[in-house]
Amino acid sequence: MSEQEVRTRACPDGPLLVRGATEWPGPDGEAVAVTRPVVAVCRCERSQRLPWCDGTHRFLAPGAAVRQG
Ligand code: FES
Q1: Tens of pLDDT along 14-30?
Q2: Radius of gyration of the chain from Cα atoms?
Q3: Which of the two ends of the chain, N or C, has the fewest CB atoms closer than 10 A to its terminal CB?
């Protein structure tokens, strides 16, 4: 098994872009397999495809989309 560096970058009022992960915690806490080099993880918790961003954050007021902390 090889270790791969995981990098993240938060998009303003949008998702967390995650590069290099092989799994990510789902809404129920169980690991969800990551099958792409980069995935967008929802930070507003309103996506219909959690843990992934589905674009719903675009319809929220600026600053309301992303949970702080
Ligand atoms: S951050 Fe995009 S739907 Fe939540």
Answers
A1: 999 999 999 999 999 99
A2: 12
A3: C
